[in-house]
Amino acid sequence: MQYEPIKSTLGRFLSGPVFLRKLFYCLLDLLLLRAWHVKRALRRLRREYPGEASVLDAGSGFGQYTWRMSRMNRNWKIKAVDINREQVEECRKFFQAAGLSGRVVCETADLTRLSGNPRYDLILSVDVMEHIREDDLVFRNFFNSLSDNGYLLMLTPSDKGGSDVHNASDASFIDEHVRNGYGTVEISHKLASAGFRNIEIRYTYGIPGDISWRLSMKYPVRMLNRSGLFFIILPFWYILIFPFAFILNTFDLCLRHKQGTGLLVLAQK
User: Fold this and answer.
1) Which end of the chain, N or C, is less surrounded by CB atoms within 10 Å?
2) Which CATH number fits the domain 4-268, given the four candidates 3.40.50.300, 3.30.70.20, 3.40.50.150, 3.40.50.720?
């Protein structure tokens, strides 16, 4: 399935009034399970940096996590980078209109060419590494870009069905993915080889989360790939499934999963 064209269409639709993009961010926070797990992890890290901190949103996409972090701590200075120039420009316009251009900088960047300067206290990377083939290089770039004792927080598909791949004959649900997911041993080894320590890995998207993902992401994306007319039906679809997705997300967030289709990773320099 092609995901980038859908994101581009949404980006153009949301490039208007500030309130519309804020509403979109709110809906993403409520519906997408990844946002629930990331928000909880960010609240934990907020205690580490109650004052000023330099943050990199590496692969910022629509900018929803940049927006959330800018509201979590008004002393944080955040750089949001993405390889998609169109999305970066739309984010830049939004944050400027929202009065945050002094604390939020949006730039086009390739993470494989990320410079070691300036130094960041926290790097956030959500659903990015499955799109980058040279992952070892990016992990080293993250390490070199962090200040001493800085943190990398990352969410990515696992090899337990991430990208909806369960056996060798399956193909990734998203065509833009270059890998189906990481194993816990594999990603721990890659991060340790890059220099990271205190590596914590937790499965996300257990059984309830996987069901929620199918309802809130897989089926809608499939519909939109068939025809853009499904954009008209989409609001009614989400009104119907939202109560079920909310309950499933709550269970996924609260339970400790022996395995899941996603990984939440926290590592320290």
Assistant:
1) N
2) 3.40.50.150
